[in-house]
Design a protein that fits this description.
The chain has 877 residues and is of the alpha/beta class. It is built from 38 helices and 15 strands.
């Protein structure tokens, strides 16, 4: 039992793993430890404050690491010996006698262990030992048991003015300012370690602190600075005061001043906070006034928005909230982020959460459209707008916003279609029903009317803009849309005027159309100039957009030089332009990195469930080697460089099965024992080896070119194919199923998809192979995948008011699968949408009969609901 204590004896050697060979000396702290050597000296501070370094230096200077004990109390052996009551006896039996006992990083002890440890300390003092104990504040459950003691806390270990002068911080402060450096800039670990802030967070995250205290720490770290009342937004007043008192007393790096009621923590990133606390956020939220992690995260993000930390708010929601909650928060906060020019923050959060934001994809797409517009990516704006316009789940306001973008920035064909759809929406629009979305990004209704006026009446839309300006230009939402529309309209006017000879632009006759346009343009320029000058320090992107148009027009038309912006407004514009340009560069770099990372993953981890064109392309293959094309649907067809391989070369079914399995596995290596299980599930090892070599040789010979086969790869443990040289209809099949399930960006893509489904993929996977269980299982999988896609597309087309297409896809699904209730439901929905009520009734009775006779169950409530919607419909006379 004494071996652990014996191993802690130094015997003149430095304790391993405490400090490096070079460390910063702290003579003032060592001097304080020397003041009273006859009492227990407790050094209680968080990780990163230099507890061990200080005691290490004291041991070296006073004892030279001789006749002393350095016990690492993190070891379970410490608690073992303490519980066995042998710790003291083991120390006393060490010869020669010790003079110093250091207990480093004592863990949190319960009452019995704390009393036992305190007794050990008393006995050591009575034997003329010097005793030093180090621990974190949360572990100090025993120091109060010592009547006479010396206590050094984290505040005592902060760097002094003299120590700061010797560090690099002196380059940032004058000698007069050194004394004014706050406590958060005096933490030793922040200067002694490369990642001092990370070490501080990691240390405090490992302490056994009450959950409400940890929650308070997270709140302070996330917000960075503010008023102490911020804590009371998450805890009751009493608990907030208690937690604040603990942090203020023992954790200086939070910069919490209870007297002044303010705090300013060390600068840490959201990623560092999430790394240490993110996994336990649900437990911390349970002790808050919210009780829910997502509600807590949304409140903290709102507080970051209030303190103008917009990007940090988005990073926090991405790291701490669920994707659904983050999506809801982004939709709600998007307008504020746009007004403050945070395109990068919107785009990054959108990209991080869009795949998990069920039911909010359309609203997120509008957010991304605005972010793309701010960064000048018009193609992305149109892509997302088209996606929203075809979505059956998008709300009226969301579709209105999407059509606005298509009218304002699309090509001629898109503009006409979008304007027609937009006019239909406006004709049937109920303004009172859309009040719940009135905070959506911008005044969408005003923007829609203006966009339609531009398309319908051309430059006469200036009158509509002037009317909108006179109604309510003081409202922030109206001001934003007025500036946005004015910018677009002024470009139209300048384009119209540029059709005339620029030399005569100042000589237009009064009352002419050109003269009227000039007057209108001056009015809009004056309005935009006044708005820009009134918000000369604003980060509002709409103000920036207006300023950009003013500068372009006043530079191009000297006639309006009297409306040029002031130097202060121009300076603010240049600052905003630099900020947005930097955001574009950052986002572009992030996108390129993400694509490179995804491409690398796809190449090294091929999967039959993911379609990746780059894998199947011959981008790295030698052009002299023809491509091997293996089609499996409707029967196997093999082509070498476009030439069909003779059937007698693949006459054996096992050879075909082997090639099919290799192709479906997309270049991923398959172990030989797995191939044996697939091809000969009931054979022994010896039989497998003989058969496999025969099948492999035949396949290799069939695919050989000039005596070599570049397509097949065999290693000592497995087999695969070279994906650079091989393509298959299986890969395209996966792409088509994905498009059917999740939709496509092309407006008329469903007609193309239907044609391919009914022609190229009308047959099943290798229909002649009926004995191999693996092929049969894969055939069923691909069959179910296609049926799922057909049902999803039919439902989507019904929502898009395309009953003809919905009926086609539903019928195809019914042709392929007659034993699934959801297929009958999709067919009934399409038939009802196409006004084929009698056919829908026949479908219902057919399904009911099948369910009753074959499965012995009743139709689902959804199917019965469709039936009742038909028979209960009556004309009102």
């Amino acid at each position: 039992m004494a071996s652990f204590v014996e191993s802690c004896r130094c015997s003149g050697a430095r304790p391993a793993g405490i400090v490096g060979h070079r460390f910063t000396s702290r003579p003032d702290i060592v001097g304080r430890l020397l003041r009273d050597r006859h009492v227990v000296r407790f050094v209680v501070a968080p990780t990163g404050f230099g507890k061990s370094t200080t005691v290490f230096e004291y041991s070296n200077i006073i004892f030279g690491f001789r006749d002393m004990l350095w016990m690492n109390c993190k070891s379970p052996c410490f608690l073992r010996d303490l519980d066995a009551n042998v710790l003291l006896s083991a120390i006393r039996h060490i010869e020669p006698a010790l003079r110093l006992a250091v207990f480093e990083d004592v863990p949190c002890l319960d009452d019995d262990r704390a009393i036992a440890f305190s007794n050990v300390l008393d006995q050591l003092l009575s034997l003329d030992y010097e005793v030093i104990v180090t621990c974190t504040p949360s572990a100090d459950t025993f120091s109060h048991l010592q009547r006479d003691r010396m206590m050094l806390t984290g505040n005592d270990l902060l760097l002094s003015d003299d120590e700061l002068v010797t560090l690099t911080v002196s380059n940032r402060y004058s000698e007069q300012d050194i004394s004014a450096i706050p406590s958060i800039s005096r933490i030793a670990g922040m200067y002694w370690r490369d990642e001092g802030a990370r070490a501080l967070l990691q240390g405090v995250s490992l302490e056994e602190l009450p959950q409400d205290v940890v929650l308070t720490m997270i709140v302070l770290l996330v917000l960075g600075s503010g008023n102490i009342d911020d804590i009371q937004a998450f805890l009751t007043p009493d608990r907030a005061r208690e937690a604040g008192a603990i942090i203020s007393e023992s954790y200086p790096f939070f910069g919490l001043d209870s007297r002044a009621g303010v705090y300013k923590t060390v600068d840490v990133s959201i990623a560092q906070i999430a790394e240490n606390f993110g996994a336990r956020m649900s437990r911390f939220a349970a002790c808050s006034t919210f009780g829910d992690k997502d509600a807590l995260a949304c409140r903290l993000a709102d507080m970051l928005i209030e303190s103008e930390q917009y990007r940090r708010a988005c990073e926090f929601m991405c790291s701490f909230a669920s994707k659904s909650a983050a999506a809801g928060w982004l939709v709600r906060s998007c307008r504020c982020l746009i007004r403050n020019g945070e395109a990068y923050a919107i785009a990054k959060l959108h990209d991080a959460i869009r795949r998990g934001a069920t039911g909010q994809l359309d609203a997120l797409s509008i957010c991304k459209s605005w972010a793309s517009l701010m960064m000048g990516d018009i193609d992305a704006v149109l892509t997302f707008s088209k996606r929203i316009s075809r979505s059956g789940a998008a709300s009226v306001m969301q579709k209105m916003q999407a059509f606005c973008f298509l009218v304002l920035f699309g090509d001629k064909q898109s503009v006409k279609k979008a304007a027609f759809k937009l006019s239909q929406i406006l004709d049937q629009f109920d303004e009172s029903a859309a009040k719940c979305e009135e905070s959506l990004y911008c005044d969408t209704l005003v923007m829609a009317k203006f966009a339609l006026a531009i398309e319908d009446e051309g430059l006469a839309a200036v009158k509509d803009w002037d009317l909108m300006r006179t109604q309510d230009s003081q409202n922030a939402a109206k001001l934003d849309v007025l500036l946005f529309c004015a910018g677009i309209l002024m470009k139209c006017i300048v384009a119209e005027l540029s059709k005339d000879d620029s030399s005569s632009i100042n000589g237009f006759k009064d009352g002419s159309m050109q003269s009227d346009l000039l007057n209108r343009l001056r009015t809009m320029l004056a309005f935009c100039k006044n708005s820009v000058e009134a918000h000369v320090s604003s980060n509002n992107w709409f103000i920036f957009f207006a300023a950009q148009n003013i500068l372009d027009i006043t530079d191009a038309l000297p006639l309006f030089s009297d409306l040029a912006l002031s130097d202060k407004a121009v300076s603010n514009f240049q600052r905003m332009r630099a900020s947005i340009s930097k955001q574009c560069e950052e986002y572009g770099l992030d996108v390129r990195r993400a694509k490179a990372k995804q491409h690398e993953y796809n190449v090294t981890n091929p999967s039959i469930f993911r379609f990746e064109e780059d894998i199947s392309k011959n981008e790295n293959a030698s052009t002299s080697i023809p491509t091997l094309s293996v089609n499996l649907f409707g029967g196997m067809e093999v082509r070498l460089g476009g030439r069909i391989l003779e059937p007698n070369k693949l006459s054996r079914m096992k050879t075909k099965t082997l090639l099919a399995v290799l192709v479906i596995n997309r270049g991923k290596e398959i172990p030989r024992h797995r191939l044996a299980e697939i091809l000969w599930p009931d054979s022994g090892i010896d039989s497998y080896r003989r058969n496999f070599y025969s099948i492999w040789s035949q396949l290799k010979q069939s695919l050989s070119i000039d005596g070599t086969c570049p397509y097949l790869i065999r290693s000592q443990v497995g087999c695969s194919i070279d994906m650079r040289l091989v393509t298959s209809d299986v890969y395209e099949y996966d792409k088509i199923c994905r498009a059917l399930l999740f939709g496509s960006d092309e407006a008329n893509d469903w007609e193309y998809l239907y044609s391919r489904v009914c022609n190229e993929y009308a047959g099943k996977l290798m229909p002649c192979e009926t004995e191999n269980k693996t092929i049969v299982s894969l055939r069923d999988h691909y069959h179910a995948q296609m049926v799922d896609g057909l049902i999803a597309t039919s439902a989507r087309l019904v929502a898009m008011n395309e009953p003809r297409g919905a009926l086609w896809f539903a019928r195809e699904a019914a042709r392929r699968e007659s034993k699934r209730e959801d297929v009958f439901i999709a067919l009934m929905e399409a038939q009802i949408a196409a006004d084929q009520r009698s056919a829908a009734l026949e479908t219902y009775f057919e399904c009911r009969q099948f369910l009753s006779e074959e499965l012995g169950i009743d139709p689902s409530s959804r199917l019965v609901g469709l039936y009742r919607s038909i028979i209960e419909t009556e004309d009102v006379f």
